[in-house]
Amino acid sequence: MTAPAPHIEVEGVTLAYGDFVIQHDLSFRIRRGDVYIIMGGSGCGKSTVMRSLTGLLAPKTGRICYDGTSFWETTPAARAETMHRFGVMYQSGALWSSMTLSENVALPLEQYTALSAEQVRAIAAYKLALVGLRGFDDFYPSEISGGMQKRVGVARAMALDPDVLFFDEPSAGLDPLSARLLDELILALRDSLGATMVVVTHELASIFTIADDAVFLDPETKTMLTTGNPRELRDHSDIPKVRAFLNRGAP
Amino acid sequence: MPPPRAELGPVQDGRARLRLTGGWQIHGQLPAVEAVSARFEAEPGLKSLGFEVEGLTGWDSGLMSYLTGLIDRCQQRGIAVDPAGLPEGIRGLLRLAYAVPERPGARRTEKRVSFVQQVGEQALALTRSTGEIMAFLGEAVLALRRLFTGQARFRKADLWLTVQEAGADALPIVSLVTFLVGLILAFIGEAQLAQFGAKIYVADLVGLAMVIQLGAVITAIVLAGRTGAAFAAQLGTMQVNEEIDALRTLGIAPMDFLVLPRLLALILMTPLLAIYADLMGILGGAFVANVAGDITLSEYFIETQQAIGWNHLIQGLISATVYGAVVTAIVFIVMAAALLTVIFNALGL
């Protein structure tokens, strides 16, 4: 039996700002429909890896392929085409402050679909309901709490039913119940839409609940230490650093 | 892919089934919920709604938003919805969408505001903001008093950084604008004065206009647009990042720590920039007089020297210092300019 072709393939990627190397020699594969965790201690470059996966930072060396096509070596137009199939949730929501929540979610729909204004509004309302914000359509981002802003960020990321959803620290700053709701949402979306989920996080509870596969980045050696299912890595990894991280420091 | 269709089947014992067929994607066209919900009117006996999805070839949020819209309308009419006929994925998403009940009072009803009410609200807002500006000015004056009594606390490094931002960094734009103003003044003046054979007085015209008023006013307006806006952006960002709250909780007055260095920098730099602006304006005038009016540079500068007295320069410098202090709003600069002109006239300067 041959394994299905990976959805996202990272081959020998080095990421740097100018000459300052953030991470080097990263190679991992993300299967379609997996919840894939990019984890590691603070400052190891998790978010930078996500930036290069989402088209914001070109890798210094190496290739990132989506469905076998090299993402950074293609034309800007083709790259933009691929990026339309992404949804990205940023760490602090990154909502447009001059628009209502409904308008925030509706903007990508207005830009890329031919739906009527009423249908766009209905879809925006449904997306807000999915993240537990029924009826908040006409609020402005400044009128809701940080945790709610984060959830609106998720709603906006899924506006166009993307193939790949990226989450940057989704559960940081959320109360335990909302964090669990978000985890459930990630799994439900994956199950119902078959989308691939790439999650940057270091919240262990969330990692063990949702992860299918993961890559562990190390801030000291500036490269990946291992890949695999976090639950198995926690119990069976032969790298002490990885086991310590996943066991909260306990050996 | 066949187009999306929703057909309500016959009602039997208060139950009916909605048959969903075709591809329900947001990138295609979607039917309106009203087409089905309008049928509810005609079927008062309908108590429960089920689903049939045999012909459903594809779906995404397009179908989901249709279903949530339909369920909301069913709930309004007391029709029970039985999702059993729907695929597991859709049922899961519906469970999520209805997991958190709508918070009572969260939904806003759109309210129309009459024109008169709008005018009234604007007027009230204007009084409020005028009050706020006055309070700010008052606090700034108090902060200046604390500065002179040695009680104000701020970092000297901040002052010098702001001096550079407000002063040296503004040189290019001030040069450009005032050189052009001098150029235009000379160009228009030269054409008029040439009719009386008095071309050489272009130097007096440009020199006096720049030194007494224009150099200071143009510098102040450039600073209000450039530096004032930059300050507003800096302080606004600090407010959002809770940096100002952090200062307050440490017992450091934001007025002293943030506003005072900026105010001082502007009061110090505006007169200096104004002198520089005067010079650039005179250079612009000299350029035109030389090229278009056949007046030599030395003739021009001797005439300028004779026209401008110390009293003119002092007027310009006092104006510039005052504008520097009120650079926060262009309105204030204009008001101050008018006021100063009256005062200088009365003093006979």
Descriptive overview:
- The complex is a heterodimer of chains A (251) and B (349).
- Chain A has a single domain (33-51, 88-246), classed as Rossmann fold (3-Layer(aba) Sandwich), CATH 3.40.50.300.
- Chain A starts with 7 loop residues before the first strand and ends in a 5-residue tail after the last helix.
- Chain A is an alpha/beta fold and 251 residues long.
- Chain A has helices at residues 46-53, 76-83, 101-112, 117-130, 146-157, 176-193, 204-210, 230-236, 240-246; strands at 8-17, 20-30, 35-40, 61-66, 69-70, 86-89, 164-168, 196-200, 213-218, 223-227.
- Chain B is of the alpha/beta class and 349 residues long.
- Chain B has 2 domains: 5-97, Transcription Regulator spoIIAA; 153-347, no CATH class.
- In chain B, strand 2, helix 1 and strand 3 form a beta-alpha-beta unit.
- The chains are: A alpha/beta (251), B alpha/beta (349).
- The A-B interface holds A 109, 112-115, 118-119, 122-123, 125-127, 129-130, 132-139, 158-161, 181, 184-185, 188-189, 191-193 and B 26-27, 29-30, 32-33, 60-62, 64-66, 68-69, 88-90, 92-93, 95-103, 106-108, 110.
Indicate the overall shape of chain B: elongated
- The unreliable regions of chain A are none
Q: What's the pLDDT, averaged over the residues of chain A?
A: 87
Residue share in helix of chain B: 55-70%
The domain count of chain B comes to 2
Structural class of chain B: alpha/beta
| Multimer state | heterodimer
The unreliable regions of chain B are none
Which two protein chains have the largest interface (Cβ within 8 Å of the partner's Cβ), and how many residues from each?
A-B, 34 and 32 residues
Q: Within the largest sheet of chain A, what's the order of strands?
A: 6-7-8-3-9-10
Computed CA radius of gyration of chain A, to the nearest angstrom: 18 Å
- CATH structural fold name of chain A: Rossmann fold
SSE order of chain B, as H and E? EEHEEHEHHHHHHHHHH
* Largest sheet properties of chain B: 5 strands, mixed
Strand content of chain A: 15-25%
- Give me the number of helical elements of chain A: 9
The tally of structural domains of chain A comes to: 1
Q: So what's the CATH class of chain A? A: Alpha Beta
